[in-house]
Amino acid sequence: MFNASIFDSIGTFLSDKGLAALGALLMIYLGIFIKKEILPLLQVKRNREVAEYILVIADDVTDFFRLKYPSAHWSVWLDRAVDRIIEITGVGRDTADRVAKATVMRKGEQVSKPEAK
């Protein structure tokens, strides 16, 4: 009889209300886990894809201006290239400036460092 009473109490606990409460707690835990572990991973992936997209556009824009002004130094057309990158991607001026300079440096030209204020 003692064994039957243990199973009866477990069966009573696992009634509809007990299962609903257990399911609610499990859903809360699952939500917290997803928010802390899964979403940051997805955000990193999205940021990496956006950065690659901006780099590809910067490569195309700098190539265009390099071909348009073949005898001019990169500093002559860099501001125009930055404006064009901003127009296409919608990023800020600082980001567009950094990506344009990085693209020019990657292609073998020397870019001066910004002066300290």
Main traits of this protein?
4 helices, 81% helix, mainly alpha
Give structural notes.
It is a single chain. With 117 residues, the chain is an all-alpha fold. It has a domain at 41-106. It has 4 helices and no strands. The chain has helices at 2-13, 16-68, 74-89, 93-106. It starts with a helix and ends in an 11-residue tail after the last helix.
Secondary-structure blueprint:
Layout lengths: L1 H12 L2 H53 L5 H16 L3 H14 L11
> Mean pLDDT, as a whole number?
81
Oligomer category = single chain
Low-confidence stretches: none
Sketch the major β-sheet. Answer: none
Number of strands: 0
For the record, give the distance between the C-alpha atoms at the N and C termini, rounded to a whole number.
Answer: 85 Å
Q: Approximately how much beta-strand content do the residues carry?
A: under 5%
Q: Helical content, roughly?
A: over 70%
